[in-house]
Amino acid sequence: MKRLILSLIAILWLAAAYPEKFTYNFKPMRLSEALSLIAEEHPQLKLNFIYNDLDNYNVSGRIDTEDGYTALKQLIGLNPVSVIKKGNHIYVEALQHGKFRYYGNIVGNNAEPVVAATVLILAPKDSTVITYGITDNEGRFSIPCDRKEVIGKLSCVGYKTTYRQFNNFNVGLIKMSEQPIYLKNVSVTADDARLYSDKSVYLPSTRQKNASTDATDLLRLMAIPQITINPINGDVSDNGGKKVAIFINNIEASKEEIQGLRTQDVRKVEYLEFPTDPRFRNEERVINFIVQEYFYGGYTKIGTTDIFLAGFSNRSTIYSKFSYKKWTYDLFLASDNIDNHHNGNSIDATYSLRDDQNNSYTLRRKDELESSHFKQNQFPITFQASYNSEKIQVRNTVGFTHNNKSADNERGKLYYTPSNGIDFSYSRMNPSINNSFAYNGMLYLSLPKNLSINITPKFSYARNNDEYRYSASSLPSPIERFARENAYYYRVDANITKQINSNHSLSLGANGGEWINKLTYNGSDNYYDSFQLGFVAALINYNFRKNSVNLNTRIGVCLEPSRINDIKDNVTYPFASINFGYSPDSKNSFSANVELSTSSPTINLKASDILQQNEYMYVGGNPYLKSSPMLGTFLSYTFIPRSNLTLSLFGYLMESFDRIIVTYGQYNDGQAILRNLNNDGDKTTGQIGASATMNLLNHSLQVYINPKLSFYKSTGIYKKSSLPLSLNLQATYYLSKFYLKIYYQSPQKGIYTMYPGTYSYPQFYSATIGWADSNWNVRFHASNFFSRKWINETSTIESKWYSSHTTNFSPDYHSQIGVTATYTFGYGKKMTQGYEIGEQGSPSSAIIK
Question: Alpha-carbon distance 704 to 554, whole Å?
């Protein structure tokens, strides 16, 4: 008993010597969430508060104390909230209650949010203070008050005190004029990036925004280390090659839809992995632009790009946005014109065939491109109407695109080995006309009890006319094929999300849709096809976030029914992922992701038709193709050792099982080769690399470097491995309103996923010099200025019955000179949140190429 008492005394002494600590590092979050966290971890406080009353107050900062009452006072800071201690209970209560709230947004001269500004609500008669509030990190305030027609007094260090008559509860955007404050021997450096467990936030500089012509161009200049941008087509992907979806204010936008973005309105850029917001539609990786909307008025942006030394290429766009209160209307027009004589390919191929006596023999067929002509004109038009309130967001977008590829012609010489001494020639023509209509909708509802619903319907229709004509002097008659197609696509996504508390959220989702293709071939090949490929999926998503830890798990099942003419098939497969993020502070972030997914064949791969391509080659699809399971692991570590340096280390491994691969076999009694598709072998892709972005000379010079070592391995009928090294470099220098950008990408090599072969792209380099302000942006750019070759890709295919070496030609890697000019003029009054529109997509075609 004595020992027990002594032990209890020792425990009590230890408890007294080491009292309970209240140590938190709160990133910007709602006060109600922070209080819930403290109440959950320290029930002895007996903390009492009304969650909804405190939901509009935001807090951040570090707390480190041994007293609970002091911790709460530090947490609340300047917010109009009282902390009262009665006996063993602590009560946290808003000082002002009300059925209504005054809410708005405060920005400075450069449209950046004014943080921690004090907003006093004054009585109109004697200017007595009724209540007050503090703006958050976005410059927003929300103050409960039922008094109408009050006076707002806004004050903040570095800004002139501003008075406004608040006639409505929604006061919109208020601009405060900056007031210079002279400090002696003080130097302040702002953070350009902050890391969290679920996202990374980057602040573009004014010079970067002015120098950018569109949203993708802004990403290039920001050089965010977790993403890469293809220098040719502008596709955005993460360091592992995974597609990154582009959103603007949590609303999906295609690459074309953000061409009209006024980059000066971008306040910050977020990179998110597995975001839980239902408006992100379960996308795994997202770039989210946070931009400003207009309370009334808007802007118009006119742009044009012309490319020289590589034929004729012009892209001209007009984008206009007009807003009034909660409604926004967008109009987008564009003209895309290409006319050049350097597109096509040369193929040196070996065929294993049989003659009329069924004897095996090898034929070498070589076509050499001598001339070509490619001409295409595209004209999209899009209109969008949007409604945006605190609880409801609605968007409806309709678009029409006319695409006329009037010329896609090739001519050249044709050689055979063994040869009979006769010279042959060939010609190939593939013009097409496409007219498409698309509708995209979005409905977002924020419901009571922390529920939200997001529904996004889509529909598109395309009328495709495609002509193929191949003639060779060795053929008795040309191969002619005329394809007429009606293609339909629809899809509906629905998600309901419940924010259980500050740490847990649960989302249930479902989506379904279908591709429908009605296709007719006439000419050398005659078919009438009716293809349908549908999908229905259901998923559940759970997210846990607490302090520096973020855990997201997703699991679902998908059913894909298909009907290729009279052949029916049903495929069911699961998909799942788990993503872990850890960010001990705003300078370090670690993420790990494991995902099980499936690569499903598109409708044109499952086509049952067999079409003749040249004198010895036929092509077809396979309606019995199966989906290919995929298992991937991705690791990344991003850190900011200095305010001007951001680094990211990454690695991934992706395994495709029983993948879809092109196969070659004898056809027509061995007198020709059939290119088909089958499931065979596995494909392993891996990569390790690093990327770093450094700002020097007071942010006048930015340097970006991205070395990568890739690994490819193929098994099955095509056994091959490769270990290529690649490097991307970029440097941007700003001098007043002028800027200079230099970019370099080393040659790219790898193994195809779908073809039994390897590919190689040449190096790419470019230099850009321009002048920009808030309205004008004029630039001159040159790429591959030392190159006189038109080669853009070489590839090698190896199989038992067919092998080839192909050289593809295009202007992409030839020397080019271009000029781009954009002019933007704005009108009206800004507020927050906005998004741009552009040309809409069309449904996938089932025409075999």
Answer: 34
Task: From 845, 780, 783, select the one nearest 814 (Cα to Cα).
Answer: 783
**How far apart, in whole angstroms, are the C-alpha atoms of residue 834 and residue 464?**
34
pLDDT at 208 over 60: yes
Q: Model confidence at 839, in pLDDT bands (50, 70, 90)?
A: very low
Is the predicted pLDDT of residue 33 greater than 90, yes or no?
no
Specify the range with the lowest mean pLDDT, choosing from 242-256, 590-604, 675-689, 770-784.
242-256
| Averaged pLDDT, 320-341 | 91
So what's the pLDDT on residue 3? Answer: 55
Q: Is 524 left (phi over 0), alpha (psi -120 to 50) or beta?
A: alpha
Task: Label residue 55 by pLDDT band (50, 70, 90).
Answer: low
Measured CA to CA, the distance from residue 31 to residue 133 in angstroms comes to 13
DSSP class of residue 508 equals: E
**CA nearest 112: which of 6, 267, 259?**
267
The residue ranking higher by pLDDT, 481 or 420, is 481
Six-digit token pair at 300? Answer: 């118009």
The Cα–Cα gap between 407 and 373 comes to 6
Check if the beta carbon of residue 240 is closer than 8 Å to that of residue 687.
Answer: yes
- Token output for 733: 């220098």
Q: Do 156 and 176 form a contact (C-beta atoms < 8 A)?
A: yes
| Residue 286 structure tokens | 């997202």
Most confident of 330-344, 379-393, 414-428: 330-344
The 3-state DSSP class for residue 594 equals strand
Looking at the chain, the number of H-run helices and the number of E-run strands are 5, 53
The tokens for 846 are 């089932």
Question: Quick check: 549 and 582 in contact, CB under 8 A?
Answer: yes
Give the contacts of 158 (CB within 8 A, at least 6 positions apart).
178, 179, 181
* Tokens read off for 431: 């013009």
List, in sequence order, every beta strand (DSSP E) within 697-762.
701-714, 720-722, 725-735, 738-745, 748-751, 757-761
pLDDT at 25: 62
Residue whose structure tokens are 């509906």: 492
- For the chain, give the percent of residues with pLDDT over 90: 57
- Sorting pLDDT into bands at 50, 70 and 90, what band is 518? very high
| Cα separation, 329 vs 327, whole angstroms | 7
Which DSSP category does 753 fall into? Answer: S
The secondary element (H helix, E strand) that includes residue 612 is strand 610-612
CA proximity to 648, closest of 205, 268, 224: 224
Q: How far apart are CA 376 and CA 383, in angstroms?
A: 24
Nearest 10 degrees: CA dihedral of 137, 140, 141, 146? -160
Nearest residue to 545 (alpha-carbon basis) of 312, 277, 798, 725: 277
d(CA 699, CA 691): 18
CB 165 within 8 A of CB 133: no
pTM: 0.77
Look at the block and give the residue holding tokens 């808003």: 94
